[in-house]
Amino acid sequence: MDLLRFITCGSVDDGKSTLIGRLLYDSDSVSLDVLATLEKRRATTGGDVDLALLTDGLKAEREQGITIDVAHKYFTTPRRKFIITDAPGHVQYTRNMVTGASNADLAIVLVDARQGVIEQTRRHTLLASLLGIQHFVLAVNKMDLVGHEEVIFQKIVADYAAITEQLKLPNVVAIPLSALNGDNVVRRSDFLPWYHGPSLLEHLESVPAAIDANPNEPRFQVQYVIRPQTEELPDYRGYAGRIQSGTYRQGDRVRIWPSGLETVIEAIEVNQQEVAAASAPQGVVLRLRDDVDVSRGATIVPISAHPAVVRELEATLCWMDERPLRAGRKLLVQHHAATVKAAVTTILQKTNIETFESQGTDEAKLNDIVRVRLKTALPLVADEYRQNRVTGAFILVDEQTGATLAAGLVAATDPEYFTDEVPAAAAFSI
Q1: Most exposed among 9, 63, 221, 294, judged by the fewest C-beta atoms under 10 Å?
Q2: Is 207 exposed, middle or buried (0-12, 13-18, 19+ CB in 10 A)?
Q3: Residue 96 burial (C-beta neighbours within 10 Å; 0-12, 13-18, 19+)
């Protein structure tokens, strides 16, 4: 049974937590003890079951009726397994939304039927697009509060179509629904007879499963060097990590970056058992034939692969710090297990959330989406994000405090690409 990861996003009070709660509740995916707790709360407070409580776990979230942190929920139907990410809608929690969307295969963009498309709708759609999500659902929620009017739904669909055209989103499906009442969430609703498409769950069950985006370019980054040095295993040396893309086979001749040394894979271990081959996203231990110098953060690839080993690159950033970013700032690039010192040499442009056009700027403020040029102190093994979502993503970290400053996507690694002028569409064509 395959797996679909999806995220709910949109503005505050659009009903994201309630929608997830309805999905879980109507698909019989809520445990009996949780149901008992909800019923007890309903008996105390009166009214209907508060489905948002199934995802809003923090006390502050329950008190304010908003989502603050990212929540993950798991459920299964006879056709598929799901991991749901409930992302907060407030602008100040944009960093949380980026975190949640980074591993999603599909984005459900909720819109309040009374409000229509607003700035946060545009912001979250842009971020989801930048993060490589290929499938979108425009969920027009609270249709019961606008009399289930088709004309209102079609107006919102037309407004959102302008966004999808600008961002060139490949797969978008619009569904009218009411998360509170369950209309078109798990089952189709008689209150929306003019809508002839699938319910939300029916669509989620039919979306193609995610596949390895770059199977011909294997990548493996070392997370941990295993050296027991016991009497039973005095000379054992293994390199643990997760295969980020492609397939590794016993006997493959490989190159270790950034050193460039070559050797051969002597054995591959999965769950302490040797296997002939392993593929992404399996966690494995590689054993090499030669005693070469390999440390945490090193990348091991077959010699036929072509990773970019660079000290300069261009990247799209979502800036997450209260302190503005300006050219010349020194920081750390955290690229999975690899950490290198770096500096932002140039801020090339900023994306206007209203128009999606690029404009010149000399600084990035909180929640700005900018394109920058980075220079690292040591070589970094990375791919352009459009080629590999795993190896093309990184974060920027403050050297002194360890705070996360930005989420970054590698836009270009080829020095010949670097020019003083960047096309207006470059901010979302990475």
Answers
A1: 63
A2: middle
A3: buried
Q: Which residues of 313-340 are buried (b: 16+ CB within 10 A; e: fewer)?
A: bbbbbbbbbeeebeeebebbbbbbbbeb
Q: Which two tokens stand for residue 379?
A: 């070589």
Nearest to 414 by CA among 276, 306, 337, 321: 306
The DSSP H or E segment spanning 239 is strand 238-245
Distance CA 40, CA 35 (A): 9
Are 137 and 200 in contact, with CB atoms under 8 Å apart? yes
Q: Are strands 81-86 and 3-10 parallel, antiparallel or unpaired?
A: parallel
- Distance CA(338)–CA(62), nearest Å, equals 38
The DSSP secondary-structure symbol of 236 reads -
**CA nearest neighbour of 23 among 45, 1, 55:** 55
CB 238, CB 287: distance < 8 Å: yes
Q: What are the tens digits of pLDDT across the range 37-92?
A: 666 665 666 656 567 666 654 334 344 444 444 567 888 999 999 999 887 655 55
State how beta strands 247-249 and 261-270 pair.
Answer: unpaired
Phi then psi for residue 142, to 5 deg, are 65, 35
Predicted confidence at residue 351, as pLDDT, reads 92
**Do residues 18 and 68 make contact, with C-beta atoms less than 8 angstroms apart?**
no
130 three-class SS: helix
In Å, how far are 86, 113, 114, 318 from 25, measured between CA atoms? 15, 23, 25, 35
DSSP H/E element including 26: helix 16-26
Q: What residue type is 360 in one-letter code?
A: G
Task: Output the pLDDT for position 337.
Answer: 94
pLDDT of residue 53: 67
Question: Which of 79, 90, 26 minimizes the C-alpha distance to 54?
Answer: 26
Q: What is the pLDDT of residues 5-45, one digit of tens each?
A: 999 988 878 888 889 888 888 888 776 666 666 666 656 66
CB 286 within 8 A of CB 223: no
DSSP 290: S
Contact 348, 116 (CB under 8 A): no
Cα(197)–Cα(203) distance, integer angstroms: 9
Rounded distance, CA 430 to CA 415, Å?
A: 16
Q: Which stretches does DSSP call E strand in 145-198?
A: 171-176
122-149 residue pLDDT tens: 988 998 998 889 999 999 999 999 999 9
